[in-house]
Design goal:
The protein is an alpha+beta fold and 149 residues long. The chain has a domain of 88 residues. The chain has five helices and three strands, in the order βββααααα. α2 crosses α3.
Amino acid sequence: MKAVFKHMLMAYRGTCDGLIYYYSPQLGRLLVRQYTRPKISAQNRRMGRIARQLSALELSAAYKNDLRLYVDIHNAHLEKHETVLMNWNNAFYKLMWKLAADSPGYIDLETLTRAQIEANDLPCRTVKRAVEAGLLPPVNGYELLTAVM
């Protein structure tokens, strides 16, 4: 759905009449979507367990900053086939899901711990190694993003 406002309010956000309004600074647009309550399913519960496990990894501030820099560089030089990364968390989830997809049966995101990542020396430990392993698309200057998880 496309919303058109006569007077653009960039700070406008919230809900009204079953719609959710929010401004995206990355896209430079006000976005509107219909509120839908997700149906409870086994897949939803699995996604919740994975999200809790990934947030329990307690990433370092330097690693988060490297991911923020990566997102800024990535979004500044997008190719036609690439999608916008909204924030560092989006980039982190993308690389972790790619890591699990590249090694099926070996890495389970529901049970992955920081100790396992360090013991197996997985490429998600730094942004540089994640790019070199193909978990994230390469960007200019990724070689400098070496902060450890």
